[in-house]
From TrEMBL:
The lineage of its organism: Bacteria, Pseudomonadati, Pseudomonadota, Alphaproteobacteria, Rhodobacterales. It comes from Maritimibacter alkaliphilus HTCC2654. One of its GO terms (molecular function) is metallodipeptidase activity. Transmembrane segments: none annotated. InterPro entries: Metal_Hydrolase, Pept_M19. It holds the Pfam family Peptidase_M19. This is Renal dipeptidase family protein. GO terms for biological process: proteolysis.
Length: 110
């Protein structure tokens, strides 16, 4: 696991979710990424993609006020830049930034 905490799913559970067509939402707070900077979150996203594939990873910010994040929605461009900086393609970023969640919702609601 990229950031081994009891809050995070073990690798085998993440792989099982992906096997059903599901998506893993990556949070932005330090307790789940071990580094809540945009670069740290981007690295967590990359680790998840490496484990389950780009079609099964999404942003999972939990901007509901119950957790403190290193950046807010006004700074999502910094996360996008960090994902580009570590080598994610624009197509991968589109999937992670919403495309995968839209696909899952469409599949499940139809």
């Amino acid at each position: 696991s990229h950031c081994d905490t009891k809050r995070n799913y073990p690798d085998d559970v993440m792989q099982a979710i992906a096997a059903t067509g599901g998506v893993i939402g990556i949070g932005y707070w330090e307790d789940v990424t071990c580094d809540d900077s945009p670069l740290g979150v981007a690295r967590t996203i990359q680790a998840a993609i490496d484990l389950v594939g780009e079609d099964h990873v999404a942003l999972g910010s939990d901007y509901d006020g119950t957790v403190t994040t290193g950046f807010d929605t006004a700074e999502l461009a910094a996360l996008t830049q960090a994902m580009l900086d570590i080598g994610l393609t624009e197509a991968q970023i589109r999937k992670v930034a919403g495309g995968n969640m839209v696909r899952v919702l469409r599949d499940r609601l139809n």
